[in-house]
Amino acid sequence: SQQGEEDPQALSIQEGENATMNCSYKTSINNLQWYRQNSGRGLVHLILIRSNEREKHSGRLRVTLDTSKKSSSLLITASRAADTASYFCATDPTNAGNMLTFGGGTRLMVKP
Amino acid sequence: DVKVTQSSRYLVKRTGEKVFLECVQDMDHENMFWYRQDPGLGLRLIYFSYDVKMKEKGDIPEGYSVSREKKERFSLILESASTNQTSMYLCASSWWDTQETQYFGPGTRLLVL
Q1: How far apart (Å, rounded) are the C-alpha atoms in residues A100 and A90?
Q2: What DSSP string describes B44-100?
Q3: Pick from B43, B50, B107: CB nearest A41
Q4: Tens digit of each residue's pLDDT (9 = 90 or more) over A38-62
Q5: Strand, helix or coil at A98?
Q6: A98 - beta bridge partners?
Q7: For an interface test with A, which of B100, B103, B109 has the most A Cβ atoms less than 10 Å from its Cβ?
């Protein structure tokens, strides 16, 4: 099964609202990353949070990490139609060398 | 800016054909990866390479092989394409020492008839 699993699988909001996506994982990690994928395109790295960090910000993005619960959340504030995409979390398990393990993604639709 | 390019955006092949997917990165990254992406299954690692001529199997290597003769180029080979290999194929690269952020190409959507 996947190391990271996003919740919800799909999310639809109005422009200007906040969007929150969650990621749960199973094993100890070095870091957790969030990526965005526009329809039919490759993934783009958004933000990385290390296992000793609890919160990180980048522009309108806010990521939290709770290692005791093995979970992370991605908050996009004041969403825009251009934020419509799939969002994936990826974990770097402590015993996996160079490999990232990706979740199934959350499909976000932001309606104008 | 890091640039990862893939040889084709869309590809249509017939069952049994040999298929080559090529990926090139311009940032002198040591690591390169091939994933396939299917609805409901997320990204699954096929193979990765941490140096020229070095490769390691990922989660789903069956039916695939890879080649890395030059540092900037990583090829995925389907020796005899099958319909269950119809998928989106994504290439990525990363630095060796950080082993963190991966930079992705635009993807190749392969249809095997």
Answers
A1: 6
A2: EEEEEEEETTEEEE-S--TT-EEEEEETTEEEEEESS--GGG-EEEEEEEE-TTT--
A3: B107
A4: 988 899 999 999 999 999 999 999 9
A5: coil
A6: none
A7: B100
CA distance A65 to A47: 12
**Cα(B94)–Cα(B102) distance, integer angstroms:** 5
Q: CB-based contact (8 Å) between B39 and chain A?
A: no
Q: Distance between alpha carbon A55 and the CA centroid of its chain, in Å? A: 13
CA distance B36 to B112: 14
Yes or no: say if B50 and B30 are a contact pair by the CB < 8 Å rule.
yes
Smallest CA-to-CA distance from B81 within B100, B101, B63 is with B63
Q: Look-up: residue for tokens 């909001």? A: A13
Angle, CA B49 vertex, CA B45 and CA B54 arms, to 5°:
135
User: What tens digit of pLDDT does each residue of B62-102 get?
Assistant: 999 999 999 999 999 999 999 999 999 999 999 875 557 89
- Residue ranges of E strands in A1-81: 5-7, 10-14, 19-24, 29-37, 43-50, 55-58, 61-66, 71-76
